[in-house]
Write a structure and sequence with these properties.
Helices cover 32% and strands 21% of the residues. The chain is of the alpha/beta class. It has one domain: CBS-domain (Roll). The strands form 3 sheets. Strands 1-9-8-7 form a 4-stranded mixed beta sheet. A 3-stranded mixed beta sheet has the order 2-5-6.
């Protein structure tokens, strides 16, 4: 990592980063995220959501997609529940056929229903140390990279971390 390196130098270009239009469905989101696998490992943990003018309007995480498929999945137990001692007793639904029926039912919903807003972006010209600072202070692992207010890619903490490690090694 040198002082000259920028967010743009480490950004994954938008054309190879998972993204959808806001009018697409949860099923389509699942297909897109699954298409970015390598040896059965997901390469990305989120999708970017764009409007019809190709402007960035939000993101959907894998967790958000799972909650969309089955809203009960991550609800905490209610007081007085008898049974599982864990905070998340509804995980038992994963082994029920009803979970898969629910998935098929919910898959046609618009992905924008599960979208979260983008809190922070960086410019392609921002120095990599500024990107690192923003990631640390905003608790973000992925930051959209803008060039002239247009999304051009995403810089991820894992690439920034790798660059920092190379620079810090003696």
């Amino acid at each position: 990592m040198s002082i000259d390196e920028t967010a743009g130098d480490f950004a994954i270009p938008l054309d190879v980063y998972p993204h959808l239009r806001e009018d697409q469905t949860l099923d389509e989101a699942l297909g897109v995220i699954r298409s970015f696998t390598c040896e059965d490992q997901l390469q990305f943990s989120e999708l970017l959501i764009l409007n019809d003018q190709e402007q960035l309007i939000g993101r959907v995480t894998v967790r958000g997609m799972l909650q969309g498929l089955e809203p009960r999945l991550l609800k905490k137990k209610e007081s007085g529940f008898e049974g599982f001692e864990a905070d998340y007793p509804n995980l038992a639904i994963l082994w029920e056929e009803s979970f898969f029926k629910q998935c098929r039912k919910e898959g046609g919903r618009p992905i924008k229903e599960f979208m979260s807003p983008i809190k922070t972006t960086v410019k392609a010209t921002d120095p990599l140390l500024k990107v690192l600072y923003i990631m640390m202070h905003e608790n973000e692992n992925n930051l959209p990279v803008l060039e002239k207010k247009k999304i051009v890619g995403v810089v991820r903490s894992k690439e920034v971390f790798a660059a920092v490690c190379l620079r810090c090694q003696l």
